[in-house]
Amino acid sequence: MTTLPIRIKFKTVCELLDISRESLRHIIRTDATFPRPIKTGDTKQSPVYFDYSELIEWHNKQKQSLAIMEA
After folding, report:
1. How many domains would you assign to the chain?
2. Which of 5, 13, 22, 60 is deepest in the core (most CB within 10 A)?
3. Model confidence over 23-40: pLDDT tens digits?
4. How far apart are CA 48 and CA 52, in angstroms?
């Protein structure tokens, strides 16, 4: 049985999408369909996470829309 993460760190999202931190920030600002970050505290230094299942769902929708555009 494989256990999938529930939430993943900002840095890990960058690694999974193979993009820089600034590119991820740009996607968050400009793409309304991208999952919203979850901040776990009130301070500026508080860690930021993303819901893993929401990221997978977003990625799959991106693949579908590209496939439709190419068809």
Report:
1. 1
2. 13
3. 999 999 999 999 999 999
4. 13
